Amino acid sequence: MHAYNRLPSSGHSSPSTPSSPRSRSPRLRSTSNSNSGGGSRVKPSARFTSGQPGQRTLAHRLAWFILSVLLRRQGIFLFAPLLYIAGMLFYMGTVSFDVVPNIRHHPAPGSLYRSPQLYAKLLPEMDSDNSTAHAISTIWKNSYRGGEWRPCINKSSGGLPESNGYLYIEANGGLNQQRTSICNAVSVAGYLNATLVIPHFHFHSIWRDPSKFGDIYDEEFFVKSLANDVRVVDKIPDYIMERFDYNMSNVYNFRIKAWSSISYYRDTVLPKLLEEKLIRISPFANRLSFDAPPAVQRLRCLANYEALRFSNPILSLGETLVARMKERSANNSGKYISVHLRFEEDMVAFSCCIYDGGEEEKRDMDAARERGWKGKFTKPGRVIRPGAIRINGKCPLTPLEVGLMLRGMGFDKTTSIYLASGKIYDSERHMKPLLEMFPLLQTKDMLATPEELAPFQDGCHRLYCLPS
């Protein structure tokens, strides 16, 4: 701006008024010049003519208006987030979300059952293997420098002190769990100086086996073998049972945690035994820790390797099966491999592992779990991770995997295999690759006649006991 000059300028006697701001604007100045009658016409600059209102489109006018409002009133920026959100909502309303992006999930190594693919890859190599090494000819060689293995169980010869009371246990589970329970019961009874009552076998809804101790094991031999270490009786005396109205449910029952230490029995069970003179432990499977003093371990070994002998009917048929198996293994000098597969339906169901049976397998396993362990696997809060179970190596080996393992150990197609196991789950499908790898495979049903097996059909545990 030019200040108002009160002093006369040179050549002028009167002061000049300041020029109007409008006249100093280039746009207005060019317009006024063009409208004046005389003088040369000044051509407007292209910089300004392109923005003339008459030449703008509707979009340009709208953008110009919004920009001018924003520049004049900066408070409008407070509404910018709302405008952004409104724009995003408008945009999202025009996009379809029916198609979900495909995100590929790569399972962890070892979490899936892929043995069939491995078998298909290795089969040509196994069929073309012409190596002369035969594992069955070397596996029986004794590698012990002392010449032979000798039992290390030292039997007692002295008498036993007065008993502290009677111990009654219920062996639950399958055949292996029952045998372990018996060995643990002998160890606990000997450690507590208790009299062991012949173990009672718990009737389970899965195996539905009514067999008693004497049906599977030689009871007389069991009592005699332990005579110098643990007292064993077949029944509780009447003067003891009279106190409990001859009802075992009235006897104090310990609910002991799995894998309890032997010190727990000394500190907790023994005082009650001395007080009651008869205690009951049910269930008893896996109720003693493997980590035990040498004296306890000795009693375990004594029960397992010396005292427990199968009953005469089982031993007799077992010897017959062994003789027939040797005859069918003449090409290997009567030598054969015995394999105990643990791929029965209950084993697969309890493991919660997933194989390659698809939806049918899932239905079978869900039904088996509910039938055998009602609610155990479906209770709220229980999370089952089949992939993690497989990575940790807790899935039962399929017949195919057992066959691959044996072939990897050097056993070829000429090896005779005796298969000792229960009914294999989905046997037709799972046994096919094992029979391809070992065509000389035999089972008890192949070696024995139906008449010979008939006496054992009412108890699956006795049938499983047939030696291999």
TrEMBL record:
The keyword DNA damage does not apply. Coiled coil: none annotated. Pfam families: O-FucT. The chain crosses the membrane at residues 76-97. The keyword Lipoprotein does not apply. One of its GO terms (biological process) is fucose metabolic process. GO terms for molecular function: glycosyltransferase activity. Keywords: Carbohydrate metabolism, Fucose metabolism, Glycosyltransferase, Membrane, Transferase, Transmembrane, Transmembrane helix. Residues 1-35 have a biased composition (Low complexity). Residues 1-53 are annotated as: Disordered. InterPro entries: FucosylTrfase_pln, GDP-Fuc_O-FucTrfase. Belongs to the glycosyltransferase GT106 family. This is O-fucosyltransferase family protein. It comes from Nicotiana sylvestris. The gene is LOC104233685.
